[in-house]
Design goal:
This protein has 267 residues and is an alpha+beta fold. α1 runs antiparallel to α2.
């Protein structure tokens, strides 16, 4: 009986976490470069149930042989093992703003590989983002909407001295007669990255390998890869499973109530 409580409760907790993840995806459906989270469910280890008994052997002296008859496996619930971002590229949307940039993946040598803009967070640490919704601050530096410096290939903040600049498809920013290669990093396995919020990722990334093709487009943004319709459908399914576990938990509670208040009552 108590095991049923824990199984139903673990199912409710797992569905609640999935609902939170899906809600966050829908809330960021219009965030440029946002990568949808995908909760990964796993089951707790199953238990093998056996019936324990004995069998009398037809001998002169009584002899009882212990016997175990397998009944079957018993599932002990499920849980959210981890949340994995979907790094599939989003659609490209035209904005017309010269400070908006988008990374368009071409042929990459690794199936799980991805390209990122390199930025500097408030602690001065190197981070990565797919959100190219940039602007220029009061000192003429190219920054994200949160104020993080966009870095060049040498790891220095990019100085544009204004909104008028051009970015080639190779990722070279042309301003004030200078050519500044943007810090575009590559990772062979984007699943090793960790989300930090505000569109930032942390992890190990390096130079773009030979054979990889990509382009940097100016005046456009990469949209979120969230499928709002699919996410809403998954939310409804997850909520129904949550309600089912809730009803099971209520049934167990009522049974326990009867066991305590009725079966054990002296008449």
């Amino acid at each position: 009986m108590l095991r049923g409580f824990y199984t139903a409760a673990s199912g409710m907790i797992a569905q609640q976490k999935q609902l939170e993840s899906l809600s966050n995806n829908i809330a960021n459906a219009n965030t440029p470069g946002y990568k949808a989270d995908q909760p990964v469910m796993r089951a707790f280890p199953e238990l093998l149930m056996q019936q324990m008994g004995g069998k009398e052997l037809p001998v002169t002296r009584e002899f009882n042989l212990p016997v175990q008859n397998p009944i079957g496996s018993l599932n002990t619930g499920a849980y959210v093992h981890e949340t994995v971002p979907n790094y599939q590229q989003g659609d490209i949307r035209q904005t017309g703003n010269t400070t908006d940039l988008a990374l368009v993946n071409g042929e990459l040598p690794d199936e799980t590989g991805s390209l990122f803009f390199t930025v500097q967070n408030e602690a001065g640490e190197e981070r990565f983002t797919r959100n190219g919704n940039f602007t220029v601050d009061g000192q003429g530096f190219l920054v994200t909407t949160q104020g993080y410096y966009v870095l060049d290939q040498a790891g220095n903040p990019v100085q544009t001295n204004g909104m008028e600049f051009n970015v080639t498809q190779d990722g070279v920013l042309q301003a004030n007669g200078q050519n500044i290669p943007l810090g575009i990093a590559y990772t062979p396995n984007a699943n090793d990255f960790t989300k930090e919020g505000n569109g930032l990722f942390s992890g190990e990334a390096g130079a773009i390998p030979a054979g990889a093709t990509f382009s940097v487009q100016q005046g456009v943004l990469e949209r979120s890869n969230v499928d709002s319709l699919q996410s809403m459908t998954q939310m409804m399914e997850s909520y129904r499973v949550f309600e089912t576990n809730q009803r099971v938990l209520k049934a167990y509670d009522e049974s326990m109530g009867k066991a305590v208040n009725e079966i054990g009552r002296l008449r």
